[in-house]
Design a protein that fits this description.
There is one protein chain. The chain is elongated. The protein has helices at about 1-10, 15-25, 30, 40-60, 65-75, 75-85, 90-105, 110-130, 140-150, 150-165, 190-200, 205-220, 225-250. By secondary structure, the protein is an all-alpha fold. α8 (about 110-130) packs across α9 (about 140-150) and α9 runs antiparallel to α12 (about 205-220). It is about 75% helix and about 0% strand. About 30% of the residues are buried. The chain has one domain (about 40-250). The longest helix is centred in the C-terminal third of the chain and has 26 residues, at about 225-250.
């Protein structure tokens, strides 16, 4: 009888989703235990929705989406010049229209992140399974991606607190609101390519990538060097692609 019970007693209990979220920040190596068997990611997505909506509401309250639009337009010299050439009434109408567009996009951001996660998981699944010989399931890869967003959610919380504390709305960049990357200190209108590239070198973004690599190592048993190479490799491709787009539309 004892022998029959022993295997069950020796198995480690699966952490709750709350424990996983906490461990992403505290001990990432423990956050993904058992995620290859039960890929649950409801909690991180709920946090994405709640924190994103809270950020959008705070931006609307403390900054205003017309100001957000005005600041974004000012970052593009050509677009700013076109706005300046408009008659005052049409310029105001255009600004209100842009403001509504930014507001809709801000509140829809959780859906954008979900779609991004689905695509990222698919790309990484192919990289690990076909490029490195792993045997991962899509749902497990997606779960790691979802949990790895937690550090970026912390950055959003910092932005919310900064806005409530009285962050200056002049020059506020809704896409890069905190000084956690060198691109924050670059004038985007004057140096869009450099600002775009340096904005990608964000402390919280890099933290997210490291957490993701740890998660993929945990569920795949691949070497950490290989998962780090895959995650950072694809990140570099997207960073250079975004920089190239900034150069194209500068």
């Amino acid at each position: 009888m004892d022998a029959a019970v022993a295997p069950g007693l020796g198995s480690a209990p699966e952490p709750s989703q709350f424990s996983r979220v906490a461990n992403v920040v505290i001990t990432p190596s423990k956050a993904f235990c058992g995620l290859d068997r039960r890929a649950n990611w409801a909690l991180p997505f709920i946090l994405i929705v709640v924190i994103s909506v809270a950020y959008s509401a705070t931006v609307g309250w403390k900054v205003g989406f017309e100001t957000v639009a005005q600041n974004q337009i000012a970052m593009n010299a050509q677009q700013a010049d076109r706005m300046e050439r408009m008659p005052a009434d049409k310029r105001d109408d255009a600004l209100r229209s842009f403001g509504k567009g930014y507001m809709v996009f801000a509140y829809a951001w959780p859906l954008v992140m979900l779609l991004m996660s689905l695509v990222i998981a698919g790309v990484l699944l192919g990289t690990f399974n076909f490029g490195m010989g792993a045997s991962l399931k899509y749902k497990s890869v997606l779960a790691v991606v979802m949990y790895s967003w937690v550090p970026l959610l912390l950055k959003t919380v910092i932005a919310i607190l900064a806005l409530i504390a009285g962050m200056d709305s002049e020059g506020f960049n809704i896409q890069n609101p905190t000084p956690t990357n060198p691109g924050f200190f670059i004038n985007f209108a004057e140096q869009p390519v450099l600002a775009s590239f340096l904005s990608g070198l964000d402390v919280f973004q890099i933290w997210t990538l490291v957490v993701a690599a740890i998660g993929f190592t945990q569920i795949s048993k691949l070497k950490k060097a290989h998962t780090l190479g895959a995650v950072f490799g694809w990140w570099l491709v997207t960073l250079l692609g975004g920089t190239a787009m900034a150069a194209l539309f500068a």
